[in-house]
Amino acid sequence: MESLELRAVEPHCSISEMGDFDLTRALDKPRLKIERKRSFDERSMSELSTGYGRHDLDMAHSPGSRSIMDTPLSYVRNSFEPHPMVAEAWEALRRSMVFFRGQPVGTIAAYDHASEEVLNYDQVFVRDFVPSALAFLMNGEPDIVKNFLLKTLQLQGWEKRVDRFKLGEGVMPASFKVLHDPVRKTDTIVADFGESAIGRVAPVDSGFWWIILLRAYTKSTGDLTLSETPECQKGIRLILSLCLSEGFDTFPTLLCADGCSMVDRRMGVYGYPIEIQALFFMALRCALAMLKPDEEGREFIERIVKRLHALSFHMRNYFWLDFQQLNDIYRYKTEEYSHTAVNKFNVMPDSIPDWVFDFMPLRGGYFVGNVSPARMDFRWFSLGNCVAILSSLATPDQSMAIMDLLEHRWEELVGEMPLKICYPCIENHEWRIVTGCDPKNTRWSYHNGGSWPVLLWMLTAACIKTGRPQIARRAIDLIESRLHRDCWPEYYDGKQGRYIGKQARKFQTWSIAGYLVAKMMLEDPSHLGMISLEEDKQMKPVIKRSASWTC
Ligand code: GLC
């Protein structure tokens, strides 16, 4: 079965098909190490509140452009002891590449020819391309990333409508597709901004990922010319104007509809989902590092600084849950009026679900799924918590506590296949009400407590940042025992994540790329700088290695 499926996909070019010339060239060429100096992203919020001068942009130089079909450098470098999955993964990643007029512009979501239903998995999704982009950057192949950033920037300029309603100018697409006309020999693009998406929801996360990726590209290559173009500066500003606009909000968090991020179906995450809040925070910090303080940029810089202060305060205080906080909420009084209220959002202690009391270890904590008036979603979401660590939305103590929780609740959160998208699942009556009886999101499946291999790269990055690489190693071992054999599924089902997901695609690109990124980061932790932001300088984090697993 496995070999049949593997044969069903035709690679553009496998390693063995490449001429001797290519291979020797790749072997001869030592990896140009990108010197990762402290650079532009470390402009601190506090410095900025006093003056907006940017730090010297002392970026290192580009590792040079390599042919997209070259042998992956990480593979060459490890030729003494490469895990066989690494070469397979590179081959599969290259097979998923999408070209527009001869130039690589992205990777399709899944190369699964065995599946009857293609749906939109043959499209380049913005969020799905992020791990692919990081893999290419880490391997010294920035061109595809640059092309992607420019292509999506062009798409941002399109007029977007859902029926008769015009969407905000800054919205980035959820996905796009290249149509090749073999007769006319032309390539055209169709894009989806939510007007075709199931449920018609705009992808709030796309713009944030775009900004985060632009910074990763700049950091990795040292090429400042891209982010400094008037087009990119405008693109950043347009995204920001969507989420910094003033309205009726009483919170600094961003109000969203259900289904506007990786969890792109109704899963009860409407309101202020942690995934969006963490990405929002990270994108604001990345934008702050890249915006030029010119006439148009200065106003945005000021707004970002103010928002970051308010957002970090709100998140660190009201979204944070640990044993102590849980006990406090359990004893909350309700119906308090005025400024002296302790229970500001009027959370009813009776709404605390039973599972949290058992789940919460004495040591450890996490950012809960959502906080809004009289509503706290106590579920754990992996992406939001990992991005909170990477962006330094979490304080150093909170980051440590998140990792402690992961260690304590390994069976529940990681199980047999890293990593649960959220914990726990919802079932029965609650499932009916919350998901609207979604047959894909049944208990412990897909977005409802399913296990997603793509999350491995974020977990690994968070582990490295908090000085606990051994946790990542353990997760990678689990992935290596199955992912290739199972043909790189999109997700796994079950309480332990043991079964290939009911409707999971095979050869899901971000499962493949996520594995490669995790491997490369662990091998060379300096890659972390692309996707991680240091704590604001004034807070001076002291991150110690914890006394966790030593295996
Ligand atoms: C599913 C996922 C979404 C992903 C898409 C393409 O819809 O929920 O996050 O972007 O598949 O892989």
UniProtKB/TrEMBL annotation:
<dbReference type="InterPro" id="IPR024746">
    <property type="entry name" value="Glyco_hydro_100"/>
</dbReference>
<dbReference type="GO" id="GO:0005987">
    <property type="term" value="P:sucrose catabolic process"/>
</dbReference>
<protein>
    <recommendedName>
        <fullName>Alkaline/neutral invertase</fullName>
        <ecNumber>3.2.1.26</ecNumber>
    </recommendedName>
</protein>
<dbReference type="InterPro" id="IPR012341">
    <property type="entry name" value="6hp_glycosidase-like_sf"/>
</dbReference>
<comment type="similarity">
    <text>Belongs to the glycosyl hydrolase 100 family.</text>
</comment>
<keyword id="KW-0326">Glycosidase</keyword>
<dbReference type="GO" id="GO:0004575">
    <property type="term" value="F:sucrose alpha-glucosidase activity"/>
</dbReference>
<comment type="function">
    <text>Invertase that cleaves sucrose into glucose and fructose.</text>
</comment>
<dbReference type="InterPro" id="IPR008928">
    <property type="entry name" value="6-hairpin_glycosidase_sf"/>
</dbReference>
<keyword id="KW-0378">Hydrolase</keyword>
<dbReference type="Pfam" id="PF12899">
    <property type="entry name" value="Glyco_hydro_100"/>
</dbReference>
<dbReference type="GO" id="GO:0033926">
    <property type="term" value="F:endo-alpha-N-acetylgalactosaminidase activity"/>
</dbReference>
<keyword id="KW-0119">Carbohydrate metabolism</keyword>
